[in-house]
Amino acid sequence: MSVPISVTVNGRLHELEVEPRTLLAHLLREDLTLTGTHIGCDTSQCGACTVLIDGTSAKSCTVLAVQADGAEITTIEGLAQDGQLHPLQEAFWDEHGLQCGYCTPGMIMSGVDLLERHPSPSEAEIRRGLDGNLCRCTGYEHIVNAMQAAAGGAS
Amino acid sequence: MVATDRPHNVVGTRPVRPDGVDKVTGRATYGGDVRFPGMLYGRILRSPHAHAIIKNIDASKALELDGVRAIVTNADFARQPDEEVALGELTANLSEMLDQVIAGTKALYRGHAIAAVAATDPHIAEDALDLIEVEYEVLDAVLDPQEAMRPGAPQLHPGMVTQEVGGLFDGETGEAGTEETNAAKHVKFTKGDLDTGFAEADIIIEREFDTGMYHQGYIETHNGTAMWKKDDRVQVWSSTQGQFEVRDQTALLCGLAPSRVTVEPVEIGGGFGGKTHVVMEPLAAILSKKTGRPVKMIMTRQEVFEGTGPTSGTHNRVKIGAKRDGTITAMDAELIFEAGAYPGSPFTAGAMCAFAPYDVDNIEVEGWDVVVNKPKVGAYRAPGAPAAEYAVESVIDEIAERLELDPLEFRLQNAAQEGTVRADGAAFGVIGNVDTLQAVQQSEHYRSELSGENRGRGVASGFWFNVGFTSAAHANVMSDGTVGLVVGSADIGGTRAALAMQFAETLGIPYESVNPQVVNTDAIGYTMVTGGSRTAFAGGWAAHEAALDIRRQLVERAAMIWECDLDAVSYEDGVLSGPDDQSFTFQEICEQLPHTGGLIQGKADVSPETSGPAFACHVVDVEVDPETGKVDILRYTAAQDVGTAVHPSYVESQIQGGVAQGIGMALHEEYVFDDSGNMENPTLLDYRMPTTFDLPMLDVLLVEVANPGHPYGVRGVGEIPIVPPLAAVANAIHDAMGVRVTQLPATPDRMLELLEEQGG
Amino acid sequence: MIPASFDYQRAGSVVEAIALKQGHDGDARFIAGGHSLVPLMKLRLAEPSLLIDISGIDGLSGVSEDGGRISIGALTTHAELESSEVLMASAPVVAEAAGEIGDQQVRNRGTIGGSLAHADPASDLPAVVVALDATIHISGSGGDRSVAAGDFFQGLFEVDLAEDEMITSVSFDAPSHAAYAKLRHPASHFAIVGVAASLSVDGGVCTGARVAITGASTHAQRLGAVEDALSGSSLDDDAIAAAAGAASIEDVNADLAGSEAYRRAMTQVFAGRAITAAARR
What is the predicted pLDDT for the residue at B3? Predict the structure, then answer.
């Protein structure tokens, strides 16, 4: 059984037929070849698969593609606008907020949600807001710095 | 040896990483991202038993499932010699390696690969696993290494006897035992005379410690894609720290010469030692051979936990004697390391590191490598050192306390220095052991007052060798004044930048003029794994030598253009100077190259036998909730001798990452097995890696004791930071609550038990 | 990790959702945020043959207050609870407990109705609604009915909800003194032990108490002995400690996050912390 869905991803409308058990993460990666959304744990701990669904962060490995019908999805590939990197993308690059880079797209997408809620977040608010994203390389310090830099630049 | 006396222009600065833009925009290509027309998806059937004879595998029903194209088992591979053979620069037992990749006659741990299936769709491949029928004869499993060493324990490998071995880089030098046992290997290092040393001691403390089996926890799970072509050439894409190791191992297990396999570079989502050997690549290759189509395999997180190589769980006994004045007179340790299903734990490294920070006359340390029905252990950041040094540093702390000495003063009094001979016979060159101890001693953190109930402060030292080995570098000079730097080192944490910086420094050009690329195994000379904290050291050295090769050729070219002797041309800071005040900037000579004989390339292969040993000293403040047993990290400072910090921000980040993992080992993480050998926490739902919530900011003190064995004084920095946190946290807990933690991780329930024992 | 195959239908109304479920011969499940169900399906611990997506049903979302009575639609997400001005003003315990669930991404998707209907033994909100003596409003093929939260949770993943019924909303009186205290599982962020306390206080004396626990046993339940001990007490430190010390439960969970003995100990610790926080409100 396939189900028709229409989903807007990074501003582009896609009309698709999907098997109901297809995970949103797989739809993005396999069908739409948006491989910037990573998969790391399968059980919604690591947050590498975080995307925005209608503006708020979600772990796309725990969302069925059919559940995204009618939704606006933003992935890491859709964050830069008019050739300009998003302030968080700039900040993660400039502040060395990454090593291997695998957690980075999810971390940045969670950061977007966080800055929506807390435009000038404290360290504690950053640590709470990124609690759903695991990084194994950095010990998080440069990630926290990047979040603060992005918030500072945005305000 | 030192490349230049002048202040550095590039080394020591903090430029952005060349791979950064791709990684923040999602364009970076990781192993799981590759895809090809007609590609099949592979999945692995794994043993539900920790120890079982595989009597029969019937894949017929699975093969009938629409979309299933092939299934492979161990029988699809050529037999391999059951002995150590040369493999790259090291040796390996290919028979064990094959059985580890896919079980032979026995499944030796839960999660052991039994069969692999390739199908047109990952859903179908997953469904097919349920249709493969395997007949097992289940055997008793043995999970504890001490039990496994006892006579009568279930024997994993019939006929296995204990092999006596030498130091880490010496191989099998000793005799083999005669009794069948699960104790695969044994090592013993002796310096001086233990009895004499303990006889001189006024205080002797002996304690036993246990550490859990920990996983490296890289966020990207393993993946491997293979394309077996009609001419028996194989292309492989794999998330690996060592593409040349993957090339050699895949080739030999598939019955090919290494030259027939090409491993392509992809980004790697973390490794920490866990991605230094083949896991699925040979399976993908044989599935591809059978089907004639490319086959991609990606592990689930559960497979990563159950089917890859975590670090050894350990049981370690340490005994140390000291005089009242604080002189350590004798140190004795016995380390028992779980190897998992096949020999090869880091017990030797643990034994060599255990007492390395101390200059003591009488030392004896022995180690055991014991097979048990758990996943075969792999390398994990300073393999063996965290567990061994946790035990030692805990006893050191206890002696300092009993002698009423400052723990740093006590360490300084006995600190290994240049010329100190270790128990394994090696003598230290220029090291920063004392310097890191002093850096902590003088730090604002250590001098600050720690107040508040249930709070405590702990310190611990650490040592790790770091290694050298072979690296290659090619550099293609472009006519616009830029250079393509071509290397074979997988870039896990910033080595493209670190190598490009050393290259730019030597050539006297801006970092931005260097375009570093990691290329496939046919496009660059043999380069060892990104591991052993070697890449910025040896890879940087190769880049430096390649830059010198370019300088030499540019001098020749300038001399030709200026029609002068070579001696009349000098090269300094990217400027060629010749007779009559003639000069070329690097950019100018590059523009001349195409018209004056052509563009040039530099190249170098280096294989330094030495490296720069690393020392670190950490201090941590903790607070223990006496009601819940939960331990919080309040403040952390890590001092480390980094030689020369090529990119200080990356060095800091390596240290912070290592500390975070060490804190995970100390407080949160471990494999939990039931009596049958099933891992009870095989997902990140239950295996607890530190999150942002669990950590404070981690302060770093970079101590730069230049390594005289490197052109830029570089030492490896990546591994040592994971060593001190275990003991530092345990010692801080003792300072806070008065209890000695002898089993890690110190989870809340264990802590509460300890506190109750103390209270009751 | 992929779920087993299933069929999928979207329901536009409660009536349609119930009809779809009634009409299905097999294991049909409602799905809203899916953050309880999808993980189980991926692990193949749940293999429903039909999912009925109720997330698009209008009118089941939001928090409202009318004369001191608060009503929360079943499809309200944890993130909406956490940031609800109504709740922060009138029942901060609910916003705070919701803010302790999972992480931001999970809170953005998970719903109160899903959390209560799924009744994971370690989820947070069941204890809160029991302590608040909330009413759970249910629609089914036989019409609408209400059940007291204290009666709703009956056992391990077992609730008073028939196959053809769904939760539509939850309502409760704004509490005067209520708080939630939780020992968080460091990886999953579920409650190893979580205690919600709601106290009635008159002139410094506790005139009534409802204290409920989650994480410790098969399902959220009241700590009767604690409530009894609190009643009439002065709510000073000693009184609270004594009341918390009376906490006792049956069928205590034992798992990797804590042994039975550890959970028993934590039950008393977190009862004390929840009551203390509630009393100081």
Answer: 53
**Would you state the pLDDT for residue A1?**
77
CATH number of A87-154: 1.10.150.120
| pLDDT tens string B441-473 | 999 999 999 999 999 999 999 999 999 999 999
Q: Do B749 and C259 make contact, defined as CB atoms within 8 angstroms? A: yes
Six-digit token string for B98:
């094959």
Q: How far is B630 from chain C (nearest CA, A)?
A: 9
Q: Which residues, 6+ apart, have CB-to-CB distance to B243 below 8 Å?
A: B263, B264, B265, B488, B490, B520, B521
- Structural domains in chain B, CATH included, are 20-28+468-604 (3.30.365.10), 34-140+222-298 (3.90.1170.50), 314-466+612-759 (3.30.365.10)
The answer to whether A67 faces chain C, any CB pair under 8 Å, is yes
Q: State in words which class domain C178-279 has.
A: alpha beta
> Taking the domains of chain A in order of start, what are their residue ranges?
3-78, 87-154
Q: What is the pLDDT of residues C51-88, one digit of tens each?
A: 999 999 999 999 999 999 999 999 999 999 999 999 99
User: Which of C240, C251, C244 shows the shortest CA–CA distance to C267?
Assistant: C244
Domain boundaries, chain C: 7-53, 63-173, 178-279
**Residue B114, by phi and psi: left (phi above 0), alpha (psi -120 to 50) or beta?**
alpha
List pLDDT tens digits, range B683-721: 999 999 999 999 999 999 999 999 999 999 999 999 999
ipTM at complex level? 0.97
Return the bridge partners of B228, or none: B234
On the question of pLDDT at B89 being above 80, the answer is no
Please indicate whether, in this complex, the C-beta atoms of A41 and B123 are within 8 angstroms of each other: no
Taking CB atoms and an 8 Å limit, are A21 and C103 in contact across chains? no
Q: Which residue has 């304690």 as its token pair?
A: B207
Which positions in chain B touch A131 (Cβ < 8 Å)? 691-693
| Residues pairing with B235 in the sheet | B227, B262
Contacts of B33 in chain A (CB under 8 A): 29, 35
Task: Check pLDDT > 60 for residue B172.
Answer: no
pLDDT (0 to 100) of residue A155: 42
Question: For residues C281 and B188, what is the distance between their CA atoms, to the nearest angstrom?
Answer: 64
Q: Domain C63-173 belongs to what topology?
A: 3.30.465
Q: Do B668 and C186 touch (CB under 8 A)?
A: yes
The answer, yes or no, to whether residue B92 has pLDDT greater than 90, is: no
Q: Give whole-number Cα distances, C162 to B530, C56, C140, in Å.
A: 58, 22, 8
Would C7-53 and C63-173 be classified into the same CATH topology? Answer: no
- Give residue C115's identity as a one-letter amino acid code: S
Tokens 């100077």: give the residue.
Answer: B577
CATH number of A3-78: 3.10.20.30
Report the amino acid identity of residue B298: I
Place of tokens 């280096």: B606
C47–chain B nearest CA distance, Å: 13
Domain C7-53, second-level architecture: 2-Layer Sandwich (3.30)
**Chains near B (3 or more Cβ pairs under 8 Å):** A, C
- The span from the CA of C272 to the CA of C181, in Å, is 9
Cα separation of the two ends of chain C: 45
Q: Which residues in chain B (644-683) have CB-CB distances under 8 A to chain A?
A: 649-650, 652-661, 683
pTM (global) more than 0.90: yes
Chains linked to C by 3 or more Cβ pairs within 8 Å? A, B
Residues A100, B649: C-beta atoms closer than 8 Å: no
- Chain C residues within an 8 Å CB radius of A57: 104-105, 108
Q: Which helix (H) or strand (E) holds B32?
A: none
Rounded to the nearest angstrom, the gap between the alpha carbon of residue A100 and the centroid of all alpha carbons in its chain is 17
- Measured between beta carbons, which residues in chain B are less than 8 angstroms from residue A42? 300-302, 683
Mutate to test the interface with B, among A10, A141, A143, A148 (most CBs of B within 10 A): A141
Beta carbons of C256 and B684 less than 8 Å apart: no
